[in-house]
Amino acid sequence: MKIAIVILNWNGRKLLENFLASVVAHASGAAVYVADNASTDTSIQFIKTSFPKVKIIQNSTNGGYAKGYNDALKQVDAEVFCLLNSDVEVTAGWLDSIYTEFETHPETAIVQPKILDYKKKDHFEYAGAAGGFLDRYGFAFCRGRIFESIEKDEGQYNDRSSIFWASGACFFIRKSTFDALNGFDEHYFAHFEEIDLCWRAFNKGFDCVYIGQSTVYHVGGATLEPANPKKTYLNFRNSLYTITKNTGYFLPGILFSRMLLDGIAGLRFLLQLKFDHFWAILRAHFTFYSNLPRLLKQRRMLPQKKNHELIQSIVWAYFINKKRRFKFLT
């Protein structure tokens, strides 16, 4: 089985200097690519000089995560794509259990490894942790992380488990599945596009799996800090996009509930004097409603089904049985 590790880069020479060596050292026969989103720094020169065996794909524009990968993967010959952030350190043998999963489970279409925090390596990392889920309102949570509460890795998720979405920080997908889904939705630019892809995959009957025997370390926020209002804007807007396209529940009720819940989030930002984040939520809703006709057209063309409540109930039961405590509001 041919796996291609594809790292998307935009002006990220420093990240490549820090992390590309670990990927090359532990590629285990997989081909390594860097897909460059029209960088203006010296990233390409650095790769050619320091890692001449790494294959370079040069995109003509910076189309963000979604378009960047859509354009680049058309030029990659492999059965499985590994979409890897440039701020991820991989470990020895991290691909072994991934190969096994795809070879022994033909129904598996998408895989995520265990994602730990590069800065605090005995804890899970916010972006993906031990596999992702959604509630019916489109709010994302993970095993190992809910809101800002992060669990210590004590081996509690060293398992193989069905999940609802896999993190774009380290995301394996069969080429046949990626092609069947027509890739990422390029309207997203960045953030939530992998959740949209996984939701569309679920609605078409593809399986998404977490493999806890494979471990990577993610810096997180290296390309866009969590406190950046642009990230707030993209997360709120793209979450609304994703629900509208994919949910099997009563859409007007979901959107009304989201308006109220997002309003509460905006009020919280106001009380914290974070006016730029409050405005980011307002802009997200304005942009969403201006794009609603397009989204409803996409919805009519895509399958929907009531999803993830069973999986969600299993996850919550696990938390309750283990008596884990989470700080839901800060």
Automatic annotation (TrEMBL):
Residue ranges constituting the Glycosyltransferase 2-like domain according to the UniProt record: 5-179
SUPFAM superfamilies for the chain: Nucleotide-diphospho-sugar transferases (SSF53448)
Residue intervals passing through the bilayer: none
Key words of the record: Glycosyltransferase, Transferase
Highest taxon of the lineage: Bacteria
An MF annotation (GO) of this entry: glycosyltransferase activity
Protein family per UniProt: Belongs to the glycosyltransferase 2 family.
PANTHER family in the record: GALACTOFURANOSYLTRANSFERASE GLFT2 (PTHR43179:SF12), RHAMNOSYLTRANSFERASE WBBL (PTHR43179)
Identification of the protein by name: Glycosyltransferase family 2 protein
Organism expressing this protein natively: Subsaximicrobium wynnwilliamsii
